[in-house]
Specification:
- This protein is α+β, with helices and mostly antiparallel strands.
- It is built from 12 helices and 8 strands.
- Strands 1-4-5-8 form a 4-stranded mixed sheet.
- Bound molecules: flavin-adenine dinucleotide (FAD).
Length: 435
């Protein structure tokens, strides 16, 4: 693995760095879990989008820059190192968008992605229900067939920022039912201001309305807002879950930047005699770097897979040309080369699709986030617990807010107990535990 960026990648990073230096707000934006903060973060998404930085890895036609995974990693590193604001549009850009790239129609991508890229439409995830969290397939909300579409009924809960968001995506019981609970689910997109939707905010421990529950009573969804086939929603949902637990939602740049801030905090405030705390700082920095290196390995694998796909295409073209010109022996050799490349590509895809890999990732980043923030609060002492509402909160209350959020990491995106079950069974081949 070569960790030095290529000249093109270095130029991309330099461009991002200088743009961020000129545009990142000098004072932190208000918390995005409040109406005021949500609006300020939406305005920031517009600034990013107007300059082509909101969704760098998407194709250009949807508002991206067609950046490779390596360039995306470099951008994220620069973004968080510059202290840029959290991304209010991430449910859309990191969860719904990859799902549309994999399962949506060209019409859905053309209609949904550009307003998502520029923060005009901000999305909420409407999956969990009061009795369906870890056991998502136990969900009860329904989509009933009607002329030209579906009518949604039921209740969703813990929908992050749905109190302020514009639209939501979720799973409903509808379409051809099967014998098992995860059959017969349909994946739909719907507006949060449609007739029949009631959004009731849920306040977090610190009083901010970070979540909402949704009550749906005959909400109309046209056929064009169903993703994938009706009744096949589970397969589509697992693709979203892979993104949620995998690399993109929690990019390494977040943690390397937080680790650097933690090390700076240690230098500024710590008692050098406290070697136990010093060791925790060092461990957090090591873990953040390890996560970054693992991401680099994934990016390298993807780059190599893209190169092998390109080679395969070239070989196919050569094969066609040779067959046309009658050089059959050489055509056979080319076919063999193409078959080897195809096998490598399939193995690569299988690794990338392995849900247990995403689960390993999820347990790692959530525990790393907790360790980083707990260490920072221990270093800051009692003042570290002051929220952003207190004038003398260290760092504007950023560590305290980050700590509250990190506590939720082992719960959202599928609890860590469930992720460990997946790892034990699917990656390690251990026996299925008692449930
Ligand atoms: C900050 C935050 C943001 C969230 N945002 C959203 C959102 O935007 N949209 C959305 O739809 N949902 C969201 N959620 C909800 C989240 O997905 C659920 O909380 C999560 O899936 C767990 O479900 P639950 O709360 O019903 O807990 P339960 O499923 O009731 O689990 C309770 C405990 O029992 C354990 N447990 C359950 N079953 C098993 C088992 N088979 N084996 C071992 N242990 C088990 C769990 O691991 C957990 O520790 C969010 C949650 C948080 C905390």
């Amino acid at each position: 693995m070569d960790l030095d960026p290529s000249p093109d990648e270095a130029a991309f990073r330099a461009e991002a760095r200088s743009w961020l230096a000129a545009h990142v707000p000098t004072a932190p934006l208000p918390s995005l879990e409040t109406a005021e903060g949500f609006a300020a973060h939406r305005a920031w998404e517009r600034i990013l989008a107007a300059n082509g930085w909101s969704v760098v890895s998407w194709p250009r036609r949807y508002g991206g820059r067609g950046a490779s995974t390596t360039e995306w990693l470099l951008f994220e590193q620069e973004y968080y190192a510059a202290g840029a604001p959290g991304r209010v549009s991430q449910n859309g850009t990191q969860l719904l968008a990859p799902t549309l790239f994999a399962h949506g129609t060209a019409e859905q991508r053309a209609r949904v992605l550009p307003p998502m890229a520029d923060g005009e439409v901000i999305w909420a995830q409407a999956w969990s229900e009061p009795e369906a969290g870890s056991d998502l397939a136990a969900l009860r909300a329904t989509a009933r067939r009607t002329s030209g579409g579906w009518l949604l009924y039921g209740q969703k809960t813990w929908s992050s920022r749905a109190a302020f968001a514009d639209r939501a995506f979720g799973l409903f019981r509808g379409g051809p039912a099967g014998e098992r609970p995860h059959q017969g689910l349909t994946y739909v997109m719907f507006p949060l201001d449609a007739p029949g939707v009631t959004v009731r905010p849920i306040r977090r421990l610190d009083g901010k309305p970070a979540f909402a529950e949704l009550f749906l009573d005959g909400v109309f969804v046209p056929d064009r807002d169903v993703i994938g086939e009706p009744g096949q929603g589970w397969r589509v949902a697992m693709s979203t879950a892979g993104s949620e637990r995998g690399l993109t939602l929690r990019s390494p740049g977040r943690f390397t930047a937080a680790a650097a801030r933690l090390a700076a905090l240690w230098r500024e405030r710590a008692d050098p005699a406290d070697t136990a705390l010093r060791d925790r700082v060092a461990d957090a920095v090591i873990a953040a770097r390890a996560y970054h290196l693992r991401a680099c390995a994934t990016a390298t694998r993807e780059t190599e897979a893209a190169a092998s796909r390109a080679a395969e295409t070239r070989a196919g073209e050569a094969r066609a040309a040779e067959t046309r010109s009658g050089t059959r022996a050489s055509a056979r050799a080319t076919v063999r080369r193409a078959a080897t490349a195809a096998t490598a590509r399939a193995a690569d895809r299988q690794r990338a699709d392995n849900p247990a890999e995403a689960s390993v990732n999820k347990v790692f980043w959530s525990e790393l986030d907790l360790a980083l923030h707990e260490t920072a609060l221990d270093l800051l002492g009692p003042y570290g617990e002051l929220s952003d509402a207190a004038a003398d909160a260290p760092g504007g209350g950023r560590w305290a807010e980050g700590y509250v959020f990190s506590l939720a990491g082992p719960v959202y995106a599928g609890t860590n107990e469930i992720q460990r079950d997946i790892i034990a069974e699917r990656l390690l081949g251990l026996d299925r535990g008692r449930r």
